[in-house]
Design brief:
heterodimer; A: alpha/beta; Cytochrome Bc1 Complex, Chain A, domain 1; 2 domains; six-stranded mixed β-sheet; five-stranded mixed β-sheet; 11 strands; 15% strand; disordered N terminus; B: alpha+beta; 16 helices; 17% strand
């Protein structure tokens, strides 16, 4: 049995190496991870273009164009017919569009591989581009911008405002769905033109894993080779703008709770040697939805202010459970903090507390004890990242994007060699507490602005009359912790005005 | 060489799943069930390949158990309290333990049960996990001040979804449809009860005594371990857990005799919504009613159904249309929901849903459609069982209902037996207008 498994393993490595030996940028490439005997097969068809490739004034086009493939009919079948065929197989095609890459994905039982692939192939290689599909998908995308994002999902809304702030005037500076104005102007011809320009062999990586037959990858490759040769040059991104001081945008709406996101661009990505040291710092400060985080401990556990408080050293999209979803790789990344909604009465205090904690992190670094603990944590936790087939092949693709053979394997290697000093050096080098973009969704924005600018004391009260003395003493410091907010650096806009046009609206 | 070692490690995380779709039983894994003298049931599913262990503790208490007025949301609140530690392993030490383990860990609360999971790598860690988890469930320690500090976190959790129309819709549907049963409130609870949680220290002790007991709990362990070794640890660390012997009497809901309605104006702009609930039966792996209704939900409202195709794809009136007949321990609701693109189409969509339910009373579904739905359910389960944690997660739900993984096989056996006539019979039995509650929802004009 062992020999058999090793055989499969080496075959996997062999095929992976073959697939990595891409020489012609105009031609298709593939990422394979065969797992003989597994009854499932996962596809991840990655296109090396994303919303940052949208032409100026046609923002939202990439998402609309690719959703015409994943949620529209092919030339041979209407979407209605596809839905009916997919249903008995429990099949689907999912689409994710990020700034620089987009992915079509699906997992199918081996019983249905042939039937599923025959339809998938038509959807992705022979799209129908029907007017009724276009109208349906464009309306859905518009409804998301007009009636959902800014009104029904404040946590996500806060993160999106932060994105607009950090990337004003940058190709990353628009939501992937576009704006109401640009989306309304898009036509079916725009969609076809985008597809024609970017849906070419050199932009496509075919990711396949699971128990597919040995000849299946070559069959898929042959089919996709019918696409024109060519590629879209990787975007030459301008240097990221650093915030000057505390730059604040307040989106005003009627709400009992305040949502807060803050951050600033980082000059490094996973490809950098320093990434691993900064990763430990980020995990220590705010690991996503884990008790390990110091911010979580301070704001939620000690004071019960909200449901959770996290920090990230790169763009983070939650995938299965609480793990990061793969295939959101970017050339440029950012540091961010996510404060989940809290009572309006405590908003000023928590903004102060967050900035104070960040200041402490930058000035004091991480203790040896915490360094050891968080490193051990990451060494073990990352073993859980790639459990599903789709995650496995997704991480393999990301590994190669950032220049690793296997990023998760490299993690074991790199983290083990780090020292506390490496981490504290990375913190000093990359993090700061003075130049930050802060996005706030709340009501009565003017009074918050006034309080921030005037550094008005912001005491809070607790249901517990016997809060530990240590916390109450620290609260006295936090409630008057000075933060330098210049009036001209605070912009207020109505929540409902966001995403109508490009940029940050004005009230 | 470290790279190579880790590559092998990550390779073995992939679970080799048996060919369950061809298997005579839908749940394809061998499992063992043992019960300690104190009533703690242990379900173990050792799997040969992965390096991962999913360790689930299922307490068969959820918002269904919140039968006293003013206690809505308490099961969920107590889930938070369960992370406060013990005298032996205080909260900070428990957090440090999980941190070093690098475990994926959390808890969640549903209507019928509360589940705690620790997903970790390495069978060498199993004994420590069993010991620490047993200590937490047997010797949980917290004081009144900890309750007062944790309670506002629930308020924060309430705020996390305060802008979500779905939560408000669900609150309103339950509150309108139920008169007596504790399914009347959501798992999160009424805001007034959440705000009173800081004062509930005494009740929390009573709640713990009643429900956090071995005779109301199940251990489910899936992954890379040896069953005998597991049982040795479980007996060693869980045997001192004392039985509760408490029997819960949930209030019985009287039959609904008149159609009900409610409407809500959401303060900010949002798409219109409708949700329609009919009182249905409880979960059963013996009676045909609920399995037949589950198939009906798919036949009438899945993306391949005629109504979905017409309203969502052809007429494009709706963004979504779905049916959710989730299985519950007590009789719950059969729910239909739709997000509608224009407010003025609300009455039309409502009418179309009722018309479709009437049509299905008179027109038997074809064998082909029935077969497609059965096929979909099988392959859907096959996808879900693709990882150790997928197995544990899927099974946690079913064993919370019936305490035995065999229930999944029995349920799918019943699916196979459901006929078009059964479905028609269920249509007539449950989908009477007098048994319905309609909740509509439109976006407000506020900024």
């Amino acid at each position: 049995m062992i020999y058999f498994l090793f055989g499969i393993f080496f075959l996997g490595l062999f095929l992976m190496n073959i697939s990595c030996a891409k020489v012609n940028p105009k031609k298709l490439s593939s990422e394979l991870l065969p797992l003989e005997g597994n009854p499932l097969v996962s596809f991840r068809i990655l296109i090396k273009v994303g919303s940052a490739n949208d032409p100026v004034d046609k923002e939202g086009l990439c998402q609309l164009a690719f959703s015409m493939l994943s949620n529209g009919g092919s030339k041979t079948m209407t979407f209605k017919e596809i839905s009916k065929k997919f249903y008995p197989m429990d099949a689907s095609v999912s689409l994710s569009v990020d700034k620089e890459m987009s992915v079509f994905s699906g997992t199918i039982h081996i019983d249905n591989l042939e039937k599923y692939y025959a339809i998938l192939k038509e959807m992705l290689l022979n799209p129908g581009f029907r007017e009724d599909d276009f109208n349906r998908l464009k309306t859905n995308q518009l409804n998301f911008l007009e009636k959902t994002l800014a009104s029904n999902m404040d946590e996500q809304f806060g993160k999106e405002i932060l994105g607009l702030m950090m990337y004003e005037g940058h190709p990353f500076g628009c939501h992937g769905a576009g704006t109401v104005e640009t989306l309304k102007s898009l036509t079916l011809d725009d969609v076809k033109a985008f597809y024609k320009e970017h849906y070419v062999q050199g932009n496509i990586i075919i990711g396949l894993t699971g128990g597919y037959p040995p000849d299946f990858p070559s069959k898929v490759a042959e089919d996709f080779s019918s696409l024109p040769e060519g590629f879209t040059p990787r975007l030459k991104l301008p240097e990221q703008r650093k915030p000057e001081g505390l730059e604040i945008v307040i989106a005003e709406k009627q709400t009992p709770a305040t949502a807060i996101s803050m951050g600033f661009p980082l000059p490094i990505t996973k490809a950098s040697d320093d990434f691993f040291a900064l990763w430990i710092a980020g995990s220590h400060f705010g690991e996503h939805r884990q008790h390990v985080s110091s911010l979580f401990q301070k704001i939620r556990e000690e004071r019960g202010q909200n449901y959770g408080d996290y920090a990230y050293i790169e763009h983070f999209v939650q995938g299965r459970d609480k793990f990061p979803a793969p295939n959101y790789s970017r050339q440029q990344q950012y540091f961010s903090i996510w404060i989940r909604p809290l009572a309006n009465s405590n908003r000023h205090f928590v903004i102060r507390q967050t900035l104070r904690e960040l200041k402490k992190l930058v000035e004091e670094g991480i203790s040896r004890e915490r360094f050891e603990m968080v490193r051990t944590y990451l060494l073990n936790y990352t073993k859980l990242y790639a459990q599903t087939l789709s995650e496995r092949i997704g991480w393999q693709m990301d590994s190669h994007y950032y220049g690793y053979k296997d990023f998760l394997a490299e993690t074991q290697n790199r983290l083990s060699k780090l020292t506390q000093e490496d981490v504290n050096r990375a913190i000093k080098k990359y993090l700061n507490f003075n130049n930050i973009s802060i996005a706030i969704i709340t009501e009565d924005a003017e009074s918050l602005k006034d309080a921030l600018v005037a550094n008005t004391p912001s005491p809070i009260s607790y249901a517990n009359p016997n809060m530990p003395k240590r916390i109450l003493e620290e609260d006295l410091v936090i409630q008057t912790f000075p933060i330098d907010v210049k009036p001209k650096k605070v912009r207020i806009a109505l929540a409902s005005d966001f995403f109508q046009k490009k940029g940050i609206p004005t009230k | 060489m470290p790279k190579f070692t880790a590559l092998i490690l990550s390779f073995f995380l992939i679970l080799f799943i048996p060919q369950l779709v061809q298997s005579s039983k839908i749940f394809p894994y061998d499992y063992k069930i043992e019960e300690l003298e104190n009533g703690l049931k242990v379900i173990s599913i050792p799997l040969p390949n992965p390096n991962i262990i999913s360790y689930y503790t299922i307490v068969r208490s959820g918002s269904r158990n919140e039968i006293e007025p003013g206690k809505s949301g308490f099961a969920h609140f107590f889930e938070h309290i369960m992370f406060k530690g013990t005298k032996k392993v205080p909260r900070e030490a428990y957090d440090a333990f999980l941190t070093k383990l690098g475990a994926g860990t959390n808890g969640y609360t549903t209507d019928d049960y509360t589940c705690y999971f620790v997903v970790f790598a390495g069978r060498e860690n199993l004994e420590t996990v069993v010991e620490t988890e047993a200590d937490r469930f047997i010797n949980l320690y917290y004081d009144e001040e900890m309750i007062k500090t944790e309670a506002p976190v629930i308020e924060g959790e309430y705020y996390s979804s305060v802008s979500s129309p779905e939560r408000r819709l669900s609150e309103l549907l339950r509150d309108t449809a139920f008169e007596k049963h504790s399914y009347k409130h959501t798992t999160l609870g009424y805001l007034k009860d959440i705000l009173d949680m800081p004062n509930q220290f005494e009740y929390s002790q009573l709640y713990k005594k009643r429900f956090y007991a071995p005779d109301n709990s199940i251990l489910l362990v899936v992954g890379d371990f040896d069953h005998n070794q597991l049982m040795e640890y479980v007996k060693k660390y869980y045997s001192s857990w004392e039985k509760s012997n408490y029997t819960l009497q949930t209030p019985e809901e009287s039959a609904q005799t008149q159609a009900k309605r409610a409407h809500y104006d959401f303060p900010t702009k949002t798409l219109a919504r409708i949700t329609i609930g009919f009182h249905g039966p409880s979960y059963s792996d013996e009676k045909i009613d609920k399995p037949a209704l589950n198939l009906l939900a798919e036949i009438a409202f899945s993306p391949s159904s005629p109504l979905y195709q017409r309203l969502v794809i052809e007429e494009q009136k709706c963004l979504s249309l779905s049916a959710n007949f989730s299985d519950h321990r007590d009789p719950y609701l059969l729910i239909f929901s739709s997000i509608i693109k224009k407010d003025e189409d609300l009455p039309y969509v409502e009418n179309e849903i009722f018309k479709e339910l009437e049509r299905l009373k008179n027109e038997p579904v074809s064998e082909e459609i029935l077969s497609d739905v059965k096929s979909n359910l099988k392959y859907s389960l096959a996808n879900e069982l693709g990882t150790t944690d997928g197995v544990a997660g899927a099974l946690a739900f079913y064993i919370s209902l019936a305490t035995d993984p065999e229930t999944l096989n029995k349920l799918f056996d019943l699916y196979e037996k459901v006929t078009a006539a059964d479905i028609q019979e269920m249509e007539k039995k449950y989908f009477q207008k007098t048994n319905s509650t309609v909740v509509t929802f439109t976006g407000g004009k506020a900024k």
